[in-house]
From TrEMBL:
Gene3D superfamilies according to UniProt: 3.30.70.120
Keywords on record: Membrane, Signal, Transmembrane, Transmembrane helix
Family stated for the protein in its record: Belongs to the CutA family.
Gene that encodes the chain: LOC117730923
Subunit annotation: Homotrimer.
Protein name, entry field: CutA divalent cation tolerance homolog
GO MF annotations in UniProt: copper ion binding
Presence of the UniProt keyword Methyltransferase in the record: no
UniProt keyword Transmembrane, yes or no: yes
Length: 191
């Protein structure tokens, strides 16, 4: 198998070498693919503008791709085809006194489209100060994946339906993650 344009210095080898070259291209093109974005990828037909590949002496003369499907494959391998703005989604946490309350809240939160998913983590121990005393309780933790914009509505719902006088509702922004999963959260939870 020969990789490269006619008349240029080429890489020779079999399917294993082609796979290695494709993998190397995927690794080195990842930053560029993220910067360019998936829409612009469909218009790329050459690699001549990718001077960053010149550091690889065996790849520096590679100037064109034989088909755009190879570039599409590289995009898929790099997962750069999905874009995500850091902090668009968050993981919220709510503690509950028992499994029954946790399941009831979790189901209602998902049914009301306040979250895409709620994980119920049983048997946690919480140590905290309440009314001047150190307390220790067994609780159940809800890990809630939702849009950051839904946290105020989520907090209001929990305050209205939680047995605690002061219910814990906190959230942390999701900086990055599996693009298809983050996309799914956005599809399930409307803005």
């Amino acid at each position: 198998m020969t990789i490269g344009p006619p008349g240029a210095e080429v890489l020779r080898g079999g399917p294993v070498k082609a796979l290695i070259v494709t993998a190397l291209l995927a690794v080195f093109m990842l930053p560029l693919l993220r910067a360019v974005g998936s829409r612009a990828l469909s218009t790329l037909s050459t690699l001549s503008t990718l001077s960053t590949l010149s550091t690889l002496s065996t790849l520096s003369t590679l100037s064109t791709l034989s088909t755009l499907s190879t570039l599409s494959t590289l995009s898929t391998l790099s997962m750069a085809s999905e874009t995500y703005a850091s902090g668009t989604h968050c993981a919220a946490f709510v503690t509950c006194p028992n499994d029954g309350v946790a399941k009831e809240l979790a189901r209602a939160i998902v049914e009301r489209k306040l979250a895409a998913c709620v994980n119920i983590v049983p048997a946690i121990t919480s140590v905290y100060e309440w009314q001047g005393k150190i307390e220790e309780d067994n609780e159940v933790l809800l890990m809630i994946k939702t849009r950051s914009s839904k946290v105020p509505a989520l907090a209001q719902y929990v305050r209205s339906n939680h047995p605690y006088e002061v219910a814990e509702v906190i959230s942390l922004p999701i900086d990055q993650g599996n693009p298809p999963y983050l996309k799914w959260i956005g599809e399930v939870v409307p803005e």
